[in-house]
Amino acid sequence: MLQYVYRALFEPGDRRGNIVVSFPDVPEAITQGRGEAGARAMAEEALGLALLSYRERDKPLPKPRARGRNLVDIAVAPDVAAKLAVPEAFAASGLSKSELARRIGKHEKEVRRILDPKHPTKLPALTATLRALGKRLVVGVMEAKAA
User: Fold this and answer.
1) Would you list the domain boundaries of the chain?
2) CA 45, CA 31: separation in Å to the nearest integer?
3) Segments of the chain scoring below 70 in pLDDT
4) Which terminus of the chain has fewer Cβ atoms in its 10 Å neighbourhood, N or C?
5) 7: closest CA among 59, 53, 74, 102?
6) Sign (positive/negative) of CA torsion 109, 115, 119, 121?
7) How far is the C-alpha of 59 from the C-alpha of 52, rounded, in Å?
8) Which fold has domain 5-75?
9) What is the pLDDT of residue 58?
10) Is 94 left (phi over 0), alpha (psi -120 to 50) or beta?
11) 103: Cβ–Cβ under 8 A, 6 or more apart, which residues?
12) Predicted model pTM
């Protein structure tokens, strides 16, 4: 199962109460937030944007390799995970865009939008596309842990 979870380092910022978050495996993702909850929210967003930028540049996503007790797991939002998963599933399928369009009952132009990392695609369309590619989106809920 593909999971878009990367380890993050939470460090005190220059200003009191700010927390700086960086990702050893995704150096483009660095942010800060006010307090732990704010830093986590900003980290999730920064990670998602950085990973989508890899797709925009046709670069493979970095492998999550960072280890350490001072690192915290951060997952991208479900819609971002789906937006990252669709191009991978499409590439592995060997299908043409027109065949995928036929399978999901859309025009090929819509398939190009779905595959475009910059285009905001709604979760139901991403889920249907994944289903047509023989995949399914699984969303989980877990306890938020302290940084």
Assistant:
1) 5-75, 78-132
2) 9
3) 145-147
4) N
5) 74
6) positive
7) 10
8) Double Stranded RNA Binding Domain (3.30.160)
9) 87
10) left
11) 95, 132
12) 0.86
